[in-house]
## 1
Amino acid sequence: MLIEDIQNICKKLPHVTEDIKWESHLCFCVGEKIFIITSPDESPVSASFKVDDEDFAELRERDGFQPAPYLARYKWIHVDNINRFSKKQWEEYLGKAYELVKAKIPARKRKELGIF
């Protein structure tokens, strides 16, 4: 997996924007809310992303995964190397992260942005 693979997966999701935050973190957002944060300048490339309760409990037990610093209370997981997931797994988890974050966007904002 390359960071470009993550970008391509995210760009296929509707209304996704990408932005550089905190000087070097490539973030993907829906409705201005982040659903994945990557560190493309690190070697290996790491990432943090939103998960549901079940995935949070399962992933935190795997090697290379841990609750994301500062975001764990919101059920975010940090992976130390994006190659710990296959492309298919990234598609699944990023799809879930996108939906979880999109669901939290207020109805008025979703309507403004054309997000349903």
## 2
Amino acid sequence: MTPEDLSPLDRAQLAEKLRSNPTLTFRNTPEQQALLDRVTVTEKMIPTRHGDCRTLLVTPPEAGANAPLFINFHGGGFVRGHELRDTIFSAAIALRTGARVLDVDYRLAPEHRFPVAFEECYDMVAWVFSHADQLGIDPGRIALGGHSAGGNLTATITLKAHHTGDFRPVLQVLDYPFLDAATDPEDKTPGIEDAVLPYERMRSFNRLILADPAEARNPYLSPVFTDPARLPGIAPALVLVAGLDPLAGEAERYATMLVAAGTEVRLRKFLNSRHGFVTNGLEEAAEARDLMVSALKEAFARPI
């Protein structure tokens, strides 16, 4: 797909429409709020080439001075922002794994179009690896993970770090990731259009992300277009796919590429679930979270 450029006013109006009309509405509950009451949440501003990146360090009671770390990237098509549900999800992961969790509030399109969020988050992760002692974490036990657009950031940051050798996470968790900005949404997974992520909404996200349509096939935005010869040796992956999600095809495609490169990959498809099910606690979310926790514990137990 070649997204036509929009005027700044058109972009702002489209972004406001996407932000003010969510297809899923998160409802907090006393049980979820109780998770936040059991952890300590501290704002951390981390330097990057685009200015400080706002993060929330979520610490469970038992975390020691050399704890593992899970870095969590929220979804939202690179347009919708960080929400309470992201910190609640981070608290749940922290409490179940004993790891600290860094919940990332990165810059958004269209105010900051590609590659700003990618570069900001890459710099942030690199800083974390080189300043782990300041966060009370073990640099040999850092995992990355994210949902939808956050899964994209996880995959692309891990990919670039593999290319540069700057750092290596013990695990990349790709939760119903967006991995292909070039293919029209209607052609991605034929026959599947989800009310949570309808085709035109996906096209709108792409219009706001891309300043240059030629960048749609950039592997650091669309990792399904990376050179397979440059994949061997990349960090292990857990790939969670929603069976009723139009993004299912690209997630499975990338998982297949990783397997072909000799990467250790766990791929699980939740046939009865929609896009966004994990962070919103829908359908098979409990099973998906169990799998994520198990994979993180295993990865943290065998540091690189």
## 3
Amino acid sequence: MRLVDAFARTARCYPDRPAVVTDDGRRFTYDELDERSTRLATALRERVGSGRCAVLSLNSPVAVEAMLAGNKRGVATLQLSYRVTPTALVEMAEAGAARALVFDDDNADAALELLETGSFEAAIHAGDRPVDHPEVESYESVLADASPDLPPGLPEGDECAVLYTSGTTSTPKAVLFDQEQLWYGAVQGVMEHGIDETDVALCTTPWYHMVTTDAWLYPHFVAGASVVLHSEFDPAEALELVAAHDVTGVLAVPTQLRALNDVQREAGYDVDSLAYIRTGGAIVTEELVADTSEQLSDQVYNTYGMTEAGPDLTFAHPRAQKDHPGTVGKEAFSWEIRVVETAPLSADPDPDATVDPGERGEVIARGPGMSEGYIDSPVAEEKSYFDGWLRTRDVAEKDEDGYLYIVDRVDNMFISGGENVYPAEVERVIESHPDVAEACVFGLDDEQWGSVVSAVVVTDADLTEDEVEAFCRGHDSLADFKRPRTCTVTDEPLPRTDTGTLMRERLVERYVGE
């Protein structure tokens, strides 16, 4: 099934239900959202034919309308990040071959700079800010002049979106998805959370990410639920929106969850309506789940996915986390997940070389929701896709019951004294200290040991390096060779992407230098 057909069904069944509510008080019903996205689709077809449209916007109705308009055209929408550099924006737009650009007030300066490349045949500005550019049209004027009826022949294809990897070590790579591929993720979300038309979801993570698009927006639109768009994350504002709109579902990466918990602990907003909280994108500790259960809701879902394959490779329900703490769950429906012997990047893993329960290996995955590759990085594609499988580059193990536990990224591992050290293991231990907010572990070059374990620890308490090292020495689950030999304590948050991924190289440069 295509997402365009799924949304048409929702608009028929729930035309008067609120589809989108903004944090500044605007509301759009499904009938209104359907008409506005159709008008945008017809307007774009008039201007760029079958050309793709790039969108540069905060979480807003404009972003949602552009997504739906792309589906109605059957032409992918380029979901650009507003947090990357101008150079990266140009590369992202060029990789996806965008011919139209839609942008909002907050991103007008970046959009005007992007237009200077001369690659766009149409530019549409949504907002009230004056924009001095002869080729830029007003979004509302464009919609007002466009036809509310789709012409024959639309959708002309099955494209849905060009999504981008997090780009922690390089320019984000472009990944093309069709509507059926993302349909699997949307249905997965509906099934796992039990979403229906009575639900109200708060959208706090940037709309352009895979997890927001396919694990949050599309599932709720498919089910006929309402989505409250939080333009930019602020924990107090988010909790105010939960209380004001009787929000039932929240998507938040671990760093956001910690911030929500901290504010809720002090302010005590009415959050009794919350029925499901989805998290993932970074390590989810037992302590975070316990704190979230106490402050917000005990219905915390831990998930595992990636841009190239969708947000739902595995799903850990609240009950699974109680019996199997730390798990990201079992493989989701329509997916096959294997943990196999790790191979170098120059060789493909053997899908049949699965490791035994409790042993570590590399996660590979396949399923109908998987993309077919990168549209701009053939070398990276060759290293990631093989024989219908996707290499995740994640180290993991399964227990006797088949539950998956992510250990770390293959690329993060370093060797100290001949032993493999996975930073995430050490970080989990350090972050279990009640005064530690977050931690990053990495290897420092050492003549004797090859590398020594080093840590940067974030806290707002009066915690010393010696106390951190003593805590690690006394922790039963941490072998001696994994203990930090050097430690820096700071109150500065660790650098992360907006999906919570730790930017290790940037952190090492900050504290160690070149």
## 4
Amino acid sequence: MKQWPLPLMGLLIAAGLTAAPPDKSTLSTPDLTPIAPQVPAADRHQPNRVFLERADVLKVDPDEPNVQILVGGVTFRRGDMFMYCDSARFYTDPSLPADSMEAFGNIRMEQGDTLFLYGDEMEYSGMEQRATVYGIDRDVRLINRDVTLTSPVIHYAMGINLGYYDQGGTLTDPQNTLSSLEGEYAPPTKEANFYGRVRLTGISDKGDTINVRTDTLLYNTDTRIAELPVFSRIIGQKGDIITSNGLFNTAANTTTLLDRSLVHTTDGHTLTGDSIVFDRTTGIGEAFGSMVLTDSARSVRLEGDYGYFNQQIDSAYATGRARAMEYSKPDTLYLHGREIRTFLTPDSLRLMVANPEVRFWRIDLQGVCDSMTFVQQDSTLYMNGDPIVWNENRQIFGNVIQVHLNDSTVDRVELPDFAFVAEEIEDEFYNQMSGKTMIADFEDGDIKRLQLNGSVQAIMLPEENDSTYNKIVSLESSYLDAYFANRDIERAHMWPETTGTVTPIYLARRSQLYLPKFRWETEIRPNGPDDIFPRTNPATQIISTTEEEIQPEKDEETTESD
């Protein structure tokens, strides 16, 4: 956007403008002898001079030979501008490069059939090439086709074709009305500038109300585009816009906003960014650069390098270091995906979908996967594509993971298609369980019950009374139901048949420490709200086993468990 120049009116006012109407008493000269007006024929086309075209009566005072007093049907011309009045004092000094006048009664200025200026009294300064028109009975009107400028006093700079006011005024066109303490309008360019307590009101071509409040506004009456270079508020039926650098197309009801402008809707959304394009009629907005979209009604914040928002269908999109924050619960959920979408389903479920490279962090739960759907109504995470979740020293993975959250902590984790849970005891030693399906229930962030169904396998390291670990228990069954207390297994039941082995740790081979599909991927675990973004060449620590390593030991002690 261009730099805002010093108002032309300010320069003109500084040049010596006064807003006092001319003294009408100077026309009272009863002792003067009227003479017939004589209109000279020569040199009547000098562009910057004013010429008398006609008058009913002309009077001359011998003491003021350079002053003509004109009465009745007075007409002046300056170039192609004609000036009409009932009476006037016309100052003509051959030694000066320009003429001046004072005019009274039914002031009318015309330029072609497109520009008209109406008032009650007028002063014209030939040196400054400026006419000042005063309204005594009503405001002065400057009319240019379908644009009208009104004010108690209007100045018209003929040299640059600029009308302006400094005592409060209004500009109207077929769509909008603009008012301010000071204003200027240039008929040739259709540019209008307004300063001080600026108000713009109107109805857009799409039927929406327009209401702008600011202290400086630049406007074009042809395009109906308003430039807002200072703090401004656009007020509408569906929300407000706050900007200090923006363009408002009042005809199309669209805005282009810069410098971290803010769009605020009545339904609780706010949108900001380095630049924003927003359609006030459709409620569709695009934000570029450090976009932030907040839904205060649902306690969701969406960030990204680029964002899209559709107010009508209540949907949003973010990409480029996209991050979503869900803060309806005491602990905020921070979520990243290369793309994040939020929308309403036909049955009014509020969904947040992220993919790919999904990473999330909450103080009691962290996870990664390829795609994730968050249902806000019941606070459930649906994870797909190699999902892994961590809770304290536990890691859970499978083909699909469903995480149910309550007000403050994890409530339940379900794995309907393969499940593997590992709990770190100390370096390279882990309690492990796997099965076809799993349900884990939590209470106050701690696991309370674990149910595994189908092809259940387990490796456990029971803690001895002296808080040491000296044996490895390997178990297999069809079903497992375990209860926990103080984060340790309190009791467990496996059925219908259970086989297993107990091996002293000092005799166990490395392959006996892990179930076949075990892996421990702590290096990709998000460590905080800002660690959810993709890492550059992340180092992944994977501990696994191969078929060749898994060999039975001759020294094993075989046992059965119920």
